Amino acid sequence: QVQLRESGPGLVKPSQTLSLTCIVSGGSLTTAYYYWSWIRQSPGKGLEWMGDIAYSGSTYYRPSLKSRTSISRDTSKNQFALQLSSVTPEDTAVYYCHTFPFRGQGTQVTVSS
């Protein structure tokens, strides 16, 4: 069973870059046909897919976030990361890492000065 755990700061200032890491156990980032995702849920809103990094290393982003989002991986550590630049209070959300059908417990990120 794959386990995912998000880590990163809970508070980010406006205009800064949000950086989160997902630590993966019980599965490999390079296993064929697995996609590793970041999703988020803002207060009062549904889940929003932000982007994927595929087993091949290819990345895919939500068009509305593409200019601010970067997903990368470190296969030696079996971790993948999210960077979201130029954050605003609207980026306040619980951020989850995910690979079907598994999801981390989520980490709250608040954007505030």
SSE topology:
Blueprint: E1 3-7, E2 11-12, E3 18-25, E4 35-41, E5 47-54, E6 59-61, E7 69-74, E8 79-84, E9 93-99, E10 102-103, E11 107-111
Parallel strand pairs: 2-11
Antiparallel strand pairs: 1-3, 3-8, 4-5, 4-9, 5-6, 7-8, 9-10, 9-11
Give the helix tally: 0
Low-confidence stretches: none
Strand content: over 45%
Q: What share of the residues lie within helices?
A: under 10%
Computed over alpha carbons, the radius of gyration is 13 Å
Query: N-to-C SSE series?
Result: EEEEEEEEEEE
Largest sheet: 7 strands, mixed
Given the helix and strand composition, which structural class is it? mainly beta
Q: Give the overall average pLDDT.
A: 97
Q: What's the end-to-end separation, in Å?
A: 39 Å
Question: What is the approximate shape?
Answer: globular
* Total beta-strand segments: 11
Task: Report on this structure.
The chain is mainly β and 113 residues long. It contains no helices and 11 strands. The chain has strands at 3-7, 11-12, 18-25, 35-41, 47-54, 59-61, 69-74, 79-84, 93-99, 102-103, 107-111. Strands 2, 4, 5, 6, 9, 10 and 11 form a 7-stranded mixed sheet that branches. A hairpin with a 5-residue loop joins strand 4 and strand 5 (47-54). The protein is globular. The relative contact order is 0.32. The model has no long low-confidence stretch (mean pLDDT 97).
